Fold this sequence. Notes:
Elements: E1 7-11, H1 27-39, E2 48-52, E3 64-67, E4 73-76, H2 84-99, E5 118-122, H3 135-140
Parallel strand pairs: 1-2
Antiparallel strand pairs: 1-3, 3-4, 4-5
Amino acid sequence: MSHDQPILSFCMTCRDGNEDVHGNVRGGARLAQAFLSRNGAVPPLGFELRGMLCMSQCKRSCIVSLSASGRFWYLFGDLDAAEPGHVKALRDLIPLYLAAPEGFLRREARPEPLRPRILGRLPPPGSTSDLVISIEEMSACSVRT
């Protein structure tokens, strides 16, 4: 696995409450399978796929992350393996991520089905994004909670 390409990671152990009607196959594994079924086993867009045995977001399954060295990292949850729009949105996210400086995508730039499902967006070390400020700058500006 090359670490130069973005990596789309699926939590394979996420439960979605539908395991009993799907032969006890977990929701996260079904989401990964739906992605592969729609997109083929070899991703053609310059990214890699991997499964994770747990991403520690059990209350918000099914979980997928998108990460790359020197780029923002994203974590999405509440995805549905049976929803073709969720699988398509993950596929549509990749070229947007690759084209954006540092992979930074504002809410309106992400595919619509993923907008309300974001659980986290983390900047890379050394980011030049306007979202990243120093603690010293923070005390001088009006950051409201």
